TrEMBL record:
Entries under InterPro entries matching the protein: DUF3224, SO1590-like_sf
Record's protein name: DUF3224 domain-containing protein
Species of origin: Paraglaciecola polaris LMG 21857
Region spans: Disordered: 1-20
Coiled-coil intervals, chain numbering: none
Gene3D superfamilies: SO1590-like (2.40.350.10)
Length: 127
């Protein structure tokens, strides 16, 4: 199944002195078919020649298609002058509540100054 909506994000830079990468706290408010709060941390690195990478762990708590629960999203983004990529996946086994057996991937689209998401997910039946 695919669900869509928007989210607002607040990034709070952390002052980690003497480290080669930056760290930010993430707070997202999701609306649409996915309603809830995403909290996490991001580690990023930017170089002088324009290469960048980031990794984040985000814990979503709320509901997806009116199913209450939580799960963990793993983010990995890379950027260079030639290409950029972003992969966001649900950590297998991290679901709880009505989302216990959730798996899937998320896409983020920035359009008209807003953040949009598309979550492709499945609820597998484990016996």
């Amino acid at each position: 199944m695919t669900v869509k909506g928007t989210f607002d994000v607040d990034l709070s830079p952390q002052n980690d002195k003497n480290t080669p990468a930056g760290r930010m706290l993430i707070e997202k408010k999701y609306t649409g078919a996915m309603v809830g709060l995403g909290l996490g941390q991001m580690i990023s690195k930017h170089t002088d020649n324009g290469v960048a990478v980031y990794f984040a762990i985000e814990e979503f708590v709320g509901c997806v298609d009116e199913k209450d629960g939580s799960f963990t999203l793993l983010h990995q983004g890379k950027m260079s002058a030639e290409e950029q990529s972003l992969e966001i996946s649900i950590l297998a086994g991290s679901g709880s509540g009505a989302l216990t057996n959730i798996c899937g991937n998320m896409r983020i689209i920035q359009q008209d100054g807003k953040h949009h998401y598309e979550l492709d997910y499945q609820l597998s039946l484990l016996v």
